[in-house]
Amino acid sequence: MSGPNPQHRLGIALVLAAAVAWSTAPFFTRLLPFDSWTILFWRGLFGGGVIAALLVLTHGRAGLRDLAGMGKISWLVASLSTLGMVTFIPALQLTSVSNVAIIMATGPFAAAALARLWLRETARWQTLLAGAVALGGVAMIVGGARAGPDGLGIALACFMTLAIATMTVVIRRHRDTPMLAAAALSNILGCVVSIPFARGIATVTGVDLVIIAMFGFFQVALGLTLYMLGSRLLPSAQASLIATLETPLMPLWVWLAFQEAPAPRALVGGALVMGAVIADVVGDMRAQRQNV
Q1: Strand, coil or helix: what is 150?
Q2: With contact defined as beta carbons under 8 Å apart, do 219 and 21 qualify?
Q3: Is residue 290 part of a domain?
Q4: Residue 291: inside a domain
Q5: CA dist., res. 186 & res. 99, Å (int)
Q6: Which is nearest to 116 in space by CA: 177, 176, 173?
Q7: Which of 63, 103, 123, 176 could form a disulfide with 237 if both were Cys (CB 3.0 to 4.6 A apart)?
Q8: Cβ(44)–Cβ(191) below 8 Å
Q9: How far is it, in rounded angstroms, from Cα 233 to Cα 124?
Q10: CA 38 – CA 44 distance, rounded (Å)
Q11: Which among 286, 285, 254 has a CA at the least distance from the CA of 270?
C-alpha cells in the first residue's frame, strides 16, 4: 500500500510554509515608523524584485518570457493579489483588528463556496468542520479587542477576503499558468497604487531599507510564492484553511521580539486553529492512504 499523493503532500508543506511567512507581518510592521502606504510601496518593490529574480534564476529565459508575455489569467491572479494587499492595511486602519481578523478567517468558506459554484468542487465534510473550528478559534483570539466597527473598514476587509478566495480558486483552476510571474506583477502593481497615498517614500533610512527588504523577501515574496505554488496542488477550501494558521502565529513573533505575552484567550484560540488545521491535514492524508 502506497502513501499519500506526493504532489498533495508537497502542496500542504508549501501552504504551511506560506502561512508562517505571512505571519511575520506584525513583527516587521512594528519595526517601521512609517505610514502604511509607504511600507506597502517599499515592501512591494523589494518583494516584486525578489520574485522576479527568483523566476529568472529558476527558469532562465523562460522566466523572462513569462514576465514579458503575461496572459489574461496571470493578470487576473496578479490583480486579485494586489487588491488583497492594498485593502488589507487600510482595513486595519479604519476598523478594529478583531473585525478584520474574523472576516479573514471566513476565507476557507468563501473559497469552498466559489470552488463549488465554479469548479463543481465538493469539499470534504471534515474540512468544512475544521474550518468552523478554526473560525471559532480566530474569534476567540480577537474577541477581546475593543473598537467600534467602521462600515468602510469592514467592507474593505470583506473585499480583501473575497479577492484572496477568488485568487485561490483561479490558481486551482489554471494550474499551468506561470504564477510566479503573476506574483511579481502583483507586488509591482501594489507599488504603483501606493504612490498617490504614501507620505514618507523619500524619508526612509539605510537601516529602514534593510528591514523593508527583509519584509519584502520573507513576508511578501516567500509567502506569496509558496502559497501560489502550493494552492494549485490542493483543494481550494483546504489551501485557504491551512493558510488560516497565519492568524494565531502573528502574536507569537511579537511576543518573542517585544516580550508582549499573548492573552489566555489568544493561546486557547490559537490552539483551536492549529488543532483544526492539523486534524484536517492528518485526516486527509489518511483518507488518501486508504483510497490507494
Answers
A1: coil
A2: yes
A3: no
A4: no
A5: 25
A6: 173
A7: 123
A8: yes
A9: 16
A10: 10
A11: 254
pLDDT in tens, 241-285: 788 788 778 777 877 887 766 667 767 777 787 787 778 777 776
Residues 6+ apart with CB under 8 A from 114: 165, 166, 169, 236
Contacts of 207 (CB under 8 A, 6+ apart): none
User: At 287, which amino acid appears?
Assistant: A
Distance of CA 128 to the CA centre of its chain: 19
The answer to whether residue 275 sits within a structural domain is: yes
- Nearest 10 degrees: CA dihedral of 111, 114, 117, 122? 0
Q: Residue 4: is its pLDDT beyond 80?
A: no
- Summarised one tens digit per residue, pLDDT across range 43-83 is 889 988 888 888 888 777 777 777 777 778 888 888 998 99
The amino acid present at 97, given as its one-letter code, is V
Computed from CA positions of residues 29, 32, 37, 41, in that sequence, does the dihedral angle turn out positive or negative? negative
Which tens digit of pLDDT belongs to each residue from 146-186?
555 567 877 888 888 889 889 888 887 777 777 778 888 88
Q: How many domains does the chain have?
A: 1
Domain residue limits at 72: 6-285
pLDDT at 248: 78
Residues 6+ away with beta carbon under 8 Å from 209: 42
| Integer CA distances (angstroms), 254 to 90, 103, 149, in order | 21, 22, 24
DSSP sequence for 41-90: HHHHHHHHHHHHHHHHHHHTHHHHHHHHT--HHHHHHHHHHHHHHHHHHH
- Do 95 and 154 contact (CB within 8 A), yes or no? yes
Residue 245 lies in a domain: yes
Amino acid in the structure at residue 35: D
